[in-house]
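Researcher: Next entry: MUC16 protein (Loxia leucoptera).
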Amino acid sequence: TTAATLERFTVNFTITNLPYTSDLENPDSAKFRATRRVMNTLLDDLLKESSIGPVFQGCEVTDFREGPVFFRPGSDRDQTRVDAVCTYSKEPGAAPLDRVGLYHQVSNKTRGITQLGPYSLDKDSLYVNG
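Model: Predicted structure:
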């Protein structure tokens, strides 16, 4: 038998009630580490409850950026863009990740892409695997 392989996918969204500050640029800052820890937990809990739950391995926030990607820099410092890489175990012969289905599940579990834990989300900002 062939062993399962670890596959990655990205999740990106914008938080509207987390003001962007320069310490979110620095992976060594206390604010970056604390915010990443909370985000990783929220994403992990969310995706464990999805259809990929049985094979889901975890998410790791890789980056916080200022505002939505489609706005010019400096225009939206009250919003923070979150980039995460998530991992799941793919069995040989298993169907590829259903990104559209997963997007809809995440949408449903975040009240129409508006709420993730204590955070408010920009409803037009969610991307699963780009």
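Model: Note for the record: Helices lie at 30-48, 99-109.
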